């Protein structure tokens, strides 16, 4: 089985859907945010606050580029799409799924933006981040599923159906 790489805005449901999807498909689950935290020995927001956004982004790109997993569901950080070479490498290993949620839903879910470890410049708004990232998610996606009104289980079922359909058409 190819990898399934989940992309999307913070709070769109990548990690929750990823865990469930990995169980359903009997695959490994990898959360690249957790890999960053493990490597650095600190939380994402601490890395950004103490070492700067540039350092965080270099570390994230390094982690994404070094992934060699097979048969895994990989939940990426929301900023993964900033690294075209890393995304191209991930696409070679599997199917990129954009979990889309409308801006209003993201704003509702993202109550902890100051402490969550979101890769954004000081003073940047979630609206600006959404406007910048949405076209990048769409560019790299092999398939798109919406998570705004769905339970995580329905989102997972939609991912499963669309990935199976894509694999059959290859």
How would you describe the overall organization of this protein?
- With 170 residues, the protein is α/β, with parallel strands linked by helices.
- Strands 2-3-1-4-5 form a five-stranded parallel sheet, sandwiched between helices.
- α1 crosses α8 and α4 packs parallel to α5.
- The protein starts with a strand and ends with a helix.
Short summary of the structure?
A 5-stranded parallel sheet has the order 2-3-1-4-5, with helices on both faces. α1 packs across α8, α2 crosses α4 and α4 runs parallel beside α5. The two termini are 13 Å apart.
Uncertain regions spanning at least 5 consecutive residues: none
Q: What are the secondary-structure elements, in order, as H or E? A: EHEHHHEHEHHEH
Q: Give the terminus-to-terminus CA distance.
A: 13 Å
- The helix tally amounts to 8
Number of DSSP strand runs: 5
Radius of gyration, in angstroms, nearest whole number: 15 Å
Q: Let me know the average pLDDT.
A: 91
Secondary structure class reads alpha/beta
- Specify the overall morphology: globular
Strand order of the largest sheet: 2-3-1-4-5
Biggest sheet details: 5 strands, parallel
Q: Helix share of residues?
A: 40-55%
The fraction of residues assigned to DSSP E strands is 5-15%
């Amino acid at each position: 089985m190819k990898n399934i790489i989940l992309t999307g805005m913070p709070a769109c449901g990548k990690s929750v859907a990823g865990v469930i999807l990995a169980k359903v498909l009997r695959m490994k689950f990898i959360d690249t945010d957790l890999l960053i935290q493990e490597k650095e020995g600190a939380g994402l927001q601490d890395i950004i606050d103490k070492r700067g956004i540039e350092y965080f982004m270099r570390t994230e790109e390094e982690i994404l580029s070094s992934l060699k997993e097979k048969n895994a569901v990989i939940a990426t950080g929301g900023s993964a799409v900033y690294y075209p070479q890393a995304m191209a490498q991930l696409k070679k290993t599997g199917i990129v799924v954009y979990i889309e949620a409308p801006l209003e839903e993201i704003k509702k879910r993202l109550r902890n933006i100051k402490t969550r470890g979101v890769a954004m410049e000081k003073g940047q708004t979630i609206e600006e981040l959404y406007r910048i990232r949405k076209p990048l998610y769409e560019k790299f996606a092999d398939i798109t599923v919406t998570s705004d009104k769905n339970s995580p289980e329905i989102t997972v079922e939609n991912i499963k159906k669309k990935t199976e359909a894509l694999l059959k058409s290859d």
